[in-house]
Amino acid sequence: MKYVRHKVLSGLVLSLALLGATRAFAQGLSFAGPGSKARSLGGAFTALADDYSAIYWNPAGLAWTGRGTYGLSLDAAFPRGTMRLRTGSWPGGSAPDIQSRTSNGELSTGSAGAVFPVGRRFFLGLGVYSPVNTGTVWSGADLAPLTANRSDIRWSGRLSVLTLAPVVAYKIDEQFSIGASLTANYGRFAFSRYAGNFSAPLPEPPYFREIDLGQYEESSTGWGFGATLGFSFRPSDRFSLGAVLRTATSISFNGEASVEGFPALATALSRSIGRTSAIRKTIEWPVGLSLGLAGRPLEILTLAVDFEWTRWSSLDAIDTVYQDPAWTSYMGERGNDHMPMFIRDTLRVRLGAEARLGAWAVRAGFFTDPSPAADDSINPFFPSRGALAATLGVGFLFSSWKVDGFIEYRAPRALSVGPTSMPVGPLSSRTIWDFQLPGQYEGKALTVGFAVSRVF
User: Fold this and answer.
1) Which CATH topology does 2-455 take?
2) 280 SS3 class
3) CA–CA separation, 313 vs 316, rounded Å?
4) Does the N-terminal or the C-terminal CB of the chain have fewer CB atoms within 10 Å?
């Protein structure tokens, strides 16, 4: 088991860094954008963008509202995941398979926004929403065989981002509009895991002393800024086209990390290593492009499709800076301050349909959610795998008020991964095996939400 614990340590350090680096895929889930109408259409809203949530989906769409609007939404997600780690197939491993399921509970988020006309062509507004709210919690009792039978070890990760977005839209003429929003993003990143063990040298037999490093915990917060630029073309009331560019956004996280067993390690090595250290890391959400088309073939029927490309390949590594020099030395010697990313660009496809029946609207949607991560790099805190999702929703309009609701079911593909030895770059002695935990991973997520909005 000594070898297995070492692999858990090196693998989970990267896996948790990856959890913080991605917004659209993780065991739990990340929220696909605000607004129940947009969500019920599977997110195919770039060309439609006709309510307050256009602040996120396509700011240019706000120019077609004609009047002021405000609204709010609340969503709740219920992710579930299971894993079976085939430890007997790991190099040097002989332990029985380990099975566990997540105990996340519910993840909730919300959004709100208001837009006001300024003259006949300009619209100004402000929105607040959470584009990322994801997390994973595993049972310490289930994973005790990996932690010297310590069932008290906490295994969890959580990443959330809250965005404040002032927005402006301009109606060029009766067919064209443009819009832009600045995004001020506040991020919170926290995780807990087992820190592994360390063989401290001794001057006489047995020459080594195993030190249980115990619990590792990290918590950090930070700010980052970006922009969303939108374009809309509506040649008639039956056809519309939209395009959106989301700039890269880097959030600089600052916080603290702690290792329970570092005081014991310091004593064994006769050197100064504090239990805690201030940390700093920068995580980038990459450039994204969206193109949407929407049409109304029948008076009561609207169809929409979106194509969303994200340049994940620009994120090749995450570096963590430890302010304590002893931590810098310890983590640097083990390569735990530089984490390569095994990711690629993705293209997401979204489809949506809406049928209007008087004051009621019935909606359905579907979208693909490809994973940018290589299958070989899967592990418990980053069980990234492609998913398919289906949505249903309803809306009701009365006077100047509108109420919308939706339900979304996301089904990630089941994935079974065996150990590999693919090299990972400049550290020639390290392979992708150092950053994975082979096994079988399955999961699902159900999300429900509602929104209330009004035009004035």
Assistant:
1) Porin (2.40.160)
2) strand
3) 6
4) C
